[in-house]
C-alpha cells in the first residue's frame, strides 16, 4: 500500500513542479508583455495604458507570489492538521490502534494535500496564462480555488475519524 501511495505522491510532485515551471514561464512572458506595453504607452503619451500596465504587473506579481509562496505553506499546514488517529496524533497513534490504519491515514493525508496543491497551482496557472495573453490576472479565482481545497481537506479530516469510529476501528 505504501509503495503505490509513494508512486502516486511522486507523480503528483512532478506534476506540481511542471505546473510551477509553466507558471513561471507564463508569468515572465506576461510581465514582459506588460513592460513593453508600458514602454509603448510612455512613448505615445497615454496615461490610461500606463495605469493598466502597472495594474496588470501588480496583479501578475501578486498571483505568482501567492502561487509560489502561499500554496506550499497552506497545503503543508492543512495536510499535517488532518488527524486520522483514534484521538491521538498521526505518527504515533494510540496503543490499541492498528498500524495499517495509521499508515493508511498518513498516505491519505499526503494524497489529499498533493491534490489540493495541484488544484491551487492549476488555478494560478490559468490566471497567469490568461494575463499573458492580455486578459486579467484574477486573484479572486485563485483564492476561491485555495479556499475550496482547504475546506475539502478540513471535511475529509472530520469525516475520516468519524468513519473509523463508526466502523469500529477505534475502541
What would you note in describing this structure?
The chain is 82% helix and 0% strand. With 171 residues, it is mainly α. Helix 1 runs parallel beside helix 3 (99-132), helix 2 packs antiparallel against helix 3 (99-132) and helix 3 packs antiparallel against helix 4 (139-167). The longest helix has 43 residues, at 2-44. The two termini are 24 Å apart. The model is unreliable at 88-92 (pLDDT under 50).
Cα-atom radius of gyration:
21 Å
What characteristic shape results from the CA principal axes? elongated
Order of helices and strands: HHHH
Kindly estimate the percentage of residues that lie in beta strands according to DSSP.
Answer: under 5%
Number of strands: 0
What is the overall number of helices?
A: 4
What's the main sheet like? none
**Computed structural class:** mainly alpha
> CA-to-CA gap between the ends?
24 Å
Report the helical percentage: over 70%
Mean pLDDT: 77
Write the layout of secondary structure elements.
Blueprint: H1 2-44, H2 47-81, H3 99-132, H4 139-167
In short:
The protein has 4 helices and no strands. It is mainly α and 171 residues long.
Amino acid at each position: 500500500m505504501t509503495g503505490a501511495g509513494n508512486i502516486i505522491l511522486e507523480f503528483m510532485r512532478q506534476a506540481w513542479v511542471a505546473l510551477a515551471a509553466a507558471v513561471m514561464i507564463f508569468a515572465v512572458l506576461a510581465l514582459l508583455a506588460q513592460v513593453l506595453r508600458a514602454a509603448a504607452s510612455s512613448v505615445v503619451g497615454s496615461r490610461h495604458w500606463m495605469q493598466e500596465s502597472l495594474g496588470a504587473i501588480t496583479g501578475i506579481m501578486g498571483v505568482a507570489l501567492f502561487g509560489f509562496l502561499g500554496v506550499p505553506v497552506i497545503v503543508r499546514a492543512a495536510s499535517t492538521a488532518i488527524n486520522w488517529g483514534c484521538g491521538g496524533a498521526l505518527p504515533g497513534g494510540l496503543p490499541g490502534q492498528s498500524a495499517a490504519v495509521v499508515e493508511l491515514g498518513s498516505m491519505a493525508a499526503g494524497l489529499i494535500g498533493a491534490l489540493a496543491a495541484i488544484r491551487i497551482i492549476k488555478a494560478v496557472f490559468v490566471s497567469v496564462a490568461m494575463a499573458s495573453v492580455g486578459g486579467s490576472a484574477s486573484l479572486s479565482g485563485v483564492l476561491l480555488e485555495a479556499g475550496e481545497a482547504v475546506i475539502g481537506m478540513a471535511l475529509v479530516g472530520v469525516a475520516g475519524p468519524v468513519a473509523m469510529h463508526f466502523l469500529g476501528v477505534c475502541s
